Amino acid sequence: MRFFIPQKIKNVLPSFLLLSATFLALPFIIGGDVYAQDVTATSVTLNWTAPGDNDVTGTASEYDIRYSLFLITEANWASASQANGEPTPQTAGLSETYTVENLESNSTYYFAIKTADEVPNWSDISNVISRTTLDETTAPSAIANLTLNNATLSSISLHWTAPGDDGAVGQASEYDIRYSTSPIDAGNWDVATLVTDETLPKQAGFAESFIVDGLASGTTYYFAIKTADDVPNWSAISNVASLATLTETTAPSAIAGLTADNLTGSSVRLNWIAPGDDGNSGTATTYDIRYSTSPISSETDWNNATLVTDEPTPLVAGTSQNFTVTDLDIETAYYFAIKTADEVPNWSIISNVVNTATVDDMPPATVNDLAAIIELIFMSNLV
What we know:
Elements: H1 7-10, H2 15-20, E1 31-39, E2 44-49, E3 62-68, E4 81-82, E5 95-100, E6 108-116, E7 129-132, E8 147-149, E9 156-161, E10 174-180, E11 193-194, E12 207-212, E13 220-228, E14 241-244, E15 259-261, E16 268-273, E17 286-292, H3 299-304, E18 306-307, E19 320-325, E20 333-341, E21 354-357
């Protein structure tokens, strides 16, 4: 640590005081005003003259550059945002420059600097300047290389190269990914389905990918992307890419435990365990219940059988279900069978066929013409 007594002070101090008085040398306040040379929508470049280590000589040790949306003073210095990566001070009198980045566009910022020596002894605040960042109008470039692959029954993978924040440089802020079963253009962009939880943009030039799921099988989809910066300024629509999901071919399993009970003269209750959407897993979409007075042993028999209406909706695989077939004829033998379909639809084969008969639950007709016959017998008195 070095101490000095400025000559102008020596000239006015008594000699005995000069012997005992010492003055701590602090870095000089920034020499010359801090000023801003270049301003963009997200950055401000500061310029100043390097102060010294002791007053205006030597080389200081570090800068503390701060910025805020409010006027900076000693009282609020600690709450102002500190810049990152400030330059190392040069020799006193040399020109310094530093660019504060990642600022909000169209916003007024205040800037100030303090300087420290190796102790550190900190200078006072420099002059405070303010600058307003530009209103950003440059949108990210439109994505031009969107491709699709890895289609499954319900998903498609998207791939593209990240554009920039301004044209093809920097880092954008968000993507808007949309899809439709019809070609997408500027006129129908708003009605296309909006994807949720899109990936955040990487730096310009990096490879991006995203999987869109929840799609219908065997369907052709069209995809497009828009990109926005932090304003947001939105890019034009990317190239439109299309691909079809795979067609599902796995049908629900055939019902194997169809039974009948609760027989009446006009109805039969059918009971079974729900199969799945794919084999014995998931949830199927539709039942087709049919009956006939002849055996159902072939597809021809099935096609000729009577179709039931208002069948129940399939429940998750393994769940017990039942349905009562009504409007049957009394004391008649019937054959019942079921098919199950998924959403494609892929239909199962015919279930086991249950044969049963409605019962005679019709009592004899009520007698309603009961009458009494009174027979009068007249006898002659014997004489």
